[in-house]
Each structure stands twice: as C-alpha cells, then as structure tokens.
Amino acid sequence: MWFWGVSAVIFDKGSRTINDACLIYCLPGGGVELNPIPISLYLYILCYTISLQQRGTSAANMSQKEVNGSSHRGKVLTLETMNQNVRQVEYAVRGPMVLRAVQIEEELKKGVKKPFTEVIKANVGDAHAMGQKPITFIRQVLALCAYPALLEDDKFPEDAKLRARRILDGCGGQSIGAYSASQGIECIRKDVASYIEKRDGGIPSNHENIYLSTGASDAIVTMLKLLICGEGRTRTGVMISIPQYPLYSAALTELQGVQINYYLDEDKCWGLDVGELRRSLTAAREHCNPRALCIINPGNPTGQVQSRQCIEDVIRFAKEEGLLLMADEVYQDNVYAEGCVFHSFKKVLFEMGPEFSSVVELVSFHSTSKCYMGECGFRGGYMEVVNLDPEVKAQLTKLVSVRLCSPVSGQALMDVVVNPPQPGEPSYATFTKERAAVLADLAEKAKLTEESFNNVPGFHCNPVQGAMYTFPRITIPQKAIDQAKAAGQAPDQMYCMKLLETTGICLVPGSGFGQREGTFHFRMTILPPKEKLKYVLEKIAEFNAQFLQDYS
Q1: Which of 48, 188, 270, 277 has the highest CB neighbour count under 10 A?
Q2: Could you give the domains of the chain?
C-alpha cells in the first residue's frame, strides 16, 4: 500500500471544530485504509501541502513568463528610478531650440514647404560648421600624425614634419592610436608650459602642473568633482556669473553642488563688480559652503573682456574669502575691441607678488575649439593648476586616470596650437596670414552685429569686445509675456521659437544662460560668413518688427 492523502472529519457542525483526522492509504486490491492521527499532525500536513501547491503555481507562472520573453517585473530604469540629478540637468545650447531645428531640417528634406530654404544654426560656437576654413599648418601636422607614411611626401613642409615626428616619438608605438599617459603626452605638456611662459612674459610654468583634457569642458567638470562635497549647509557652493555658460549649471546640478549666482552689470558692458561678488557670497553662506569662484574671460555669452584692474580685484577677493579660482580662458585670442587686452589670471596673480601668488589656488583652462582654430571636433584642451595641495593633485591624477587619457589626436592638435611656426620656418608666413585673417574677419563681424542690433527697435546690444557671441537685450510686449507664461514657456524662449519657425534661424534664449528678472535676451554667434550674417541680421530685424506689431 502507499500513502494517498489526509482527511479530516468534522463532527461538530456548530463550532466547526475538527474532532478527528486520519491518514488515507490505498490498498493493492483497490480499497483504502484509514489510520487515525492527532489533529496537530493533520494541520501541519495540510499547511505544508498548501505551501507546496503555491510554490508550484508561482514557478509555473514564472516559467510561462520566461517562455513569453517577459519579466515578472517592470523596467529597471525609468524616469522615476533613474538618477534624478541627471534628469534635472539642462543645457540650453543644445536644448529644445536645437531639437526643433533638426526636425525642421528633416521636414525641408522631405519637401515640406517653409518660408525659408535652410536652417541657420547660429546657436553654437562651431566655427567650421559655419564655414570657417581650417588652418593649413594645423591640418598638415595632424595628417602626418594620423598617416606617418606622408612623412616621406615632399608636399609637406619640413616644420610640419618636425612637429609630427616629435609628437609621434612621444606616443606608444609611435602611433596616435595608442593610449597616452593619463595626464597627457609629456612632450606636449612641456610645449604647453613653454607657451604659457611665453604668453605670460616669462612667469614659470611646470609641465607637471599641466593636464591635457577632452576640451576645456572635461577639465572644468573634473575640477568640480574634486571640489564638491558635504551635506546641507556644508555642501560645496560654486560662484558662477549670470549670464553664464550652461556647462557650469549643468555640471553643478549633476554633481549636486550649490550654484551661487553673481550678476554681471549689463549697463557697464557686462562688467564684474566685487561688491556684487561680496553680496552673493554673503547670502550663499547662509545655506552652503562657498569654495570656488568661476570667471569666464573673454565672456560667454556676453563677449566682455575683463580689465587688468578687475582681475586684480577678483584675485584679492578670492584670497580674502578663501576661494579657489577657476579661470575659463578659452577665448583668449578672441579680442576685438579697441583698448581691450587679454590678461591671463596667472600672469596677473604672479605680478601681484608672493602675498598672492604663493597662496591663491588657481586653475586655468584653454581649448582648441575656439580662438582662430575652431577645431571643436578634435576635443583638445588643457588645464594648469597653481598652488594645488600635492596630495589633492595626486587625487586629481588618479581621477583623470579613470578615463585613461584624453583623445591623442586632440592632444596633438593642442601641441600645434601652443607650438606654431616660428619666424624663419617655411610655414610661418602662411600660418600668420591665415590666423590674422580669421581674427580680423571675426572682429569685423563683431562690429557689424553690434551696430545692426542697435538699429533694431527694442534691442540694446553691448559691444562685442571678445569671444564669438552677442547677447542683446530685447523688448517683449506684455501680451507676449502673458501668452508665453500661459504656455509654460519663458518669454524669450517663445520669441526664439517663433523666430525659428518663421525664418529658420536658430538662436538660444537668454533664459538658458540666466538673466536679471524682467529682462530678456538671446545669444547669437558671430561665426556665419559675412554675407550670411548680414542675411541673418536682416531677417531678425524683420521678424522683430512683425513680432512687436502682433503683440502690441
């Protein structure tokens, strides 16, 4: 015989209590045998049996879902479960305006009728995309580095070959396809240090303080990672100018740093006032721990060039308040206005004497993407650290090593920028002619843009002293402001979106950079070729006149 099951016999129907239980056995001849058991044992067997049945049902259901290719859970990564800091990041330069511009381009390709034939992306400082030609010597050296067999070609000048060989000798396997040291190729860092010394009138620069980077942006974010720590009122605060380049606000949001705004003075050509710095710092100390001050000089998006006196005042302020200085100097060759001169923060710091130069912590940034080069896609850049604690510097080196190295092609490009042809070399005349032509053209377009916008009713445009952008203040009627707010838009965003839909011209609203309450702006690059820039300026003026009429 074998075990078949359990049974309970209920005798008391009123109380529903179990008065007896038994085991059921099947007999060989087909009969059954009942053996009484204690009720406690019966209950144990019953619970165990139910448990087995539930497990079997769950396993069967799971197996069926696996067969169907679906999980018993939802998505691991959703908007609610993703990193909320990333979700809150905003980067206006490539935000909704650009996304819509790309859509319009696709519509034009499909034959959709528009009141224009092309989209003009005047939203970003991408020189080559706007038609600027590469500097011959830069591309010659890069071509030689990328394809060393060309070193045997007589069409390439000897000074280009000399630089290419030196760069390749610094590469593993003499190939720019090899990883470099995390801090960057040593001979290139030495060239960067020599360039800084020459630029700053002989003030020493140590190549061990140079870090080659993936553009300046990567280096800026890396320094912010080192800086930001603490919780609540001890959380790191970083002072940034308003208007600002959105990289700073985006990085601070992602890293959970505290953004401390200080406002540039639009009525004084976007000047920087130490009184405003102090107001901002005092207010911030109520809720965070301010530890760094960021300066963009020449300015983006505002195009101002800081005077030497202003830089001295900022350095004194940083020393008094115990702040690390971050000097974003990627537009250092882009100075156009008469009487304006670029002064590096490092040069001014050391000329102020040991009282400052031995104490103030400074990190300066430069890039291959701007100036006369405009080589954005190669992602070359560097930062120089001054007075950084040696133990912190070791941590910085460790941090950059996590990503192995910056693009070696970008490092090579940076080497050509800091080590250009010298007098007497075969490429010197062509190089200086091309460089001067690019900068002269930008200066002419800066003046043209300022004058044109100041002739548009409701516009006010400060002189574009440097960099690659204009940031005019625009007048938006109250009717348009109300309509934008009802639609959940910033008024200048609505203005720029309507401009895009009407003319195909893509700009960035001032609200994406920050601005004083009640003012409205947009940022526009001055990079388009002169004739196209004139067309852009005319179309903006026409649109603005119609916009004011529609909402008056």
Answers
A1: 188
A2: 8-67 (no CATH), 92-131+435-550 (3.90.1150.10), 181-418 (3.40.640.10)
